[in-house]
Design brief:
644 residues; Rossmann fold; pyruvate-formate lyase- activating enzyme; nine-stranded mixed beta sheet; three-stranded parallel beta sheet
Length: 644
């Protein structure tokens, strides 16, 4: 070591090995632990921040007296990594990470992504495909006899028989392939605490069968008489179509999806049962959403809000969220392409203003904080503190969306609590700017001119992301999104509010191509709608059928499970590219595919140099030069993909 390095080493304060959840025996020794109670095996890098599910559950359990260890992105080729802190005394919790491992790896065109946002330096290859299954089977080898509990979004969204886009097949419940003892679905704080507590008190894992938000396997002879082999209407167990039926009969798969969707409200959901050959998976009703006091307690936990010191490069996902604040969870929008509702639930859980302000002050003390809060929100920022006007109505409701086909008369859409919170946060000492980057639901926002004015004046940095998704009413109905006229009203209000504030701001609209219900003709109409408004969107998501969503059922079966009617869907990857190209008609790099799409749609009249045309001809008069076709020699900025 040279003299400069020696001086730096001497000046550096000693590292406190007790600050993070322990990841090594050395960190355990620093705490004086001979063993851990609970081991969390995590597919993401270990970032001690509440936006990372593994850390959130780990700190939550630690706060209830458990000794929790964290092994992030272990080598899955043998058990050596898993054993470095010894055998846990209570249980092993397994999560693939903040994203489904296959969605994290592959694009809508089934190409390998260039970056893993949840790994150091964005490096790929640090987690296996179908990580929950691989980790669980590895843990079974490493810790025979120790209860294994699956959790996280991958386990949650693959808990029943489900269509898997990447293998183009129906896979059985992930619980069976993982061979775990229990699966926790949804936001897992309440279930994991009850399971861990009962295990610590001496109950065997096979005795824990009544915890909300959990699923377990029944062997042959244990399940056949639980319920009749049809859907019940008397509050008993709902028997879903079997895995074999769902795998071989698309109508049965659609009925399975429909039945599941109507059993997601914790207030009235019934248990589910699904047979898989000689076994069955039993699903308790979902856990209740956390009340405000419980949400506050979560975010008051001693998060360090930094990545573990073992990493030699930044974690891209953390860099995005490290100066953001979550105010709520859940979504009552019910968009069919999105899985937030299936995982976080339809009931909104909101933090108190005091809790948010405590986190603002903690953020202010973070190294590198420059006074800018990058986001104040959640799945949808302006659903903060919005709920049904009466708990009794909310508990009995089976409506799948509170805002589609219109906003429910029982939904309280008051933006007052959010406006008050926004004001208090931006007036905190040391806070220079507060953005609402997680987006807003514009059909709700247009009900509050004051919210739009405040948003434009104080909380937008030149551009605001919104998600109209499409212009066609029938396609938007399949998405459970409001009509495009709602977006247009919001856009006008936002533009006026920006001008009144003396700001030159604009909306950044997101669109989806290839969504079930959308034909090439519909995409041509969308392209013409965009052209008529001089819009050149870069935020385009090629529809990805994520496990368990209603739109995925439409994609796989050709049936809308809610209306039980046929629905068109583009399943060929090339047609999906053509649909996306139509939204990007303005970009010379997509002109060839746009022209082909127009020919297939019978709209050759839109190829040419006339004002109403979408693209110039491929050759001859009016065609672009090779230089222009390549974007004038400049690299085209990549469009970000939104993951529902």
């Amino acid at each position: 070591m040279d003299l400069v390095s020696l001086r730096r080493s001497a000046q550096a304060p000693p590292r406190d090995l007790r600050r993070f959840l322990p990841t090594t025996r050395e960190e355990m020794d620093a705490r004086g632990w001979d063993a851990i109670d609970i081991l969390i095996v995590n597919g993401d890098a270990y970032v001690d921040h509440p936006a990372f599910g593994g850390a959130l559950i780990g700190r939550f359990l630690e706060g209830r007296g458990f000794r929790v260890g964290m092994i992030a992105q272990p080598d899955w080729r043998d058990t050596k990594d898993l054993l470095r802190m010894g055998v846990p005394r209570v249980m092993v919790g397994i999560t693939a990470g903040n994203l489904d491992s296959m969605l994290n790896k592959l694009t809508a065109q089934k190409k390998v992504r260039a970056e893993d946002q949840y790994s150091p330096g964005g490096r790929t290859g640090l987690r296996p495909n179908r990580a929950s299954i691989v980790y669980a089977n590895l843990c079974r080898q490493a810790f025979p006899g120790v209860p294994l509990v699956l959790g996280g979004i991958e386990a949650s969204l693959r808990r029943i028989a489900h269509y898997d886009y990447w293998s183009d097949s129906v896979r059985r419940s992930i619980l069976l392939d993982a061979k775990a003892d229990l699966l926790i679905f949804g936001m897992g704080e309440s279930p994991v605490w009850e399971v861990a507590r009962r295990l610590k008190e001496g109950e065997r894992i096979e005795q824990i069968r009544d915890v909300r938000g959990t699923a377990y396997v029944l062997r042959k002879g244990q399940w056949e008489g639980i319920a009749p082999s049809r859907h019940t209407t008397d509050g008993g167990v709902v028997v879903l179509p079997t895995y074999d039926q769902a795998r071989t009969d698309k109508a049965a798969f659609a009925e399975m999806s429909r039945a599941f969707q109507y059993e997601t409200n914790p207030g009235n959901a019934r248990p589910l049962l699904q047979a898989h050959e000689h076994e069955a998976v039993y699903f308790n009703p979902p856990a209740f959403a956390l009340e405000t006091s419980a949400m506050d307690g979560l975010y008051d936990l001693p998060f360090l809000r930094k990545a573990h010191w073992q990493y030699d490069a930044p974690i891209p996902a953390f860099e995005t969220v490290k100066h953001s604040i979550v105010t709520m969870r859940g979504c009552f929008g019910g968009c069919t392409f999105c899985s937030i509702t299936e995982h976080e639930g339809r009931v909104i859980s909101s933090r108190s203003a005091e809790s948010v302000l405590r986190e603002v002050r903690a953020l202010r003390r973070m190294e590198g904080f420059n006074g800018v809060i990058s986001d104040l929100g959640g799945p949808t920022a302006n659903m903060y503190e919005m709920r049904c006007k009466e708990e009794k109505i909310e508990a009995s409701c089976r409506r799948l969306s509170c805002v589609h086909p219109g906003i429910c008369e029982n939904l309280v859409t008051d933006h007052g609590p959010l406006l008050s919170l926004m004001k208090r946060v931006r007036e905190e000492p040391g806070v220079k700017k507060v953005f609402l980057a997680s987006g807003v639901r514009y059909d709700l926002a247009e009900r509050s001119p004051e919210f739009i004015e405040t948003l434009a004046k104080h909380h937008t940095g030149g551009q605001l992301s919104v998600a109209p998704e499409h212009s066609n009413k029938d396609v938007l109905d399949k998405m459970k999104k409001p009509g495009i006229e709602s977006y247009e009203r919001f856009a006008e209000q936002f533009q006026c509010a920006s001008e009144e504030s003396g700001k030159n701001q604009f909306l950044v609209p997101y669109f989806i191509s290839g969504h079930p219900g959308s034909t090439l003709k519909d995409m041509v109409d969308l392209a013409l709608w965009l052209k008529s408004r001089n819009m050149k969107p870069r935020q385009v998501q090629d529809f990805i059928p994520t496990p368990m969503s209603v739109a995925t059922t439409m994609y796989f079966t050709g049936i809308d499970p809610l209306s039980r009617t046929p629905v068109y869907t583009a399943r060929d990857l090339y047609e999906k590219r053509l649909q996306k190209a139509l939204i990007l008609y303005w970009d010379p790099a997509h002109h060839d595919e746009t022209r082909e799409a127009l020919v297939k749609a019978g709209r050759q009249d839109l190829i040419g140099t006339r004002p109403g045309c979408l693209v110039p001809p491929a050759s001859g008069k009016g065609s672009l030069s090779i230089h222009q076709q390549r974007g004038g020699g400049r690299a085209r900025p990549p469009s970000r993909e939104r993951r529902g």
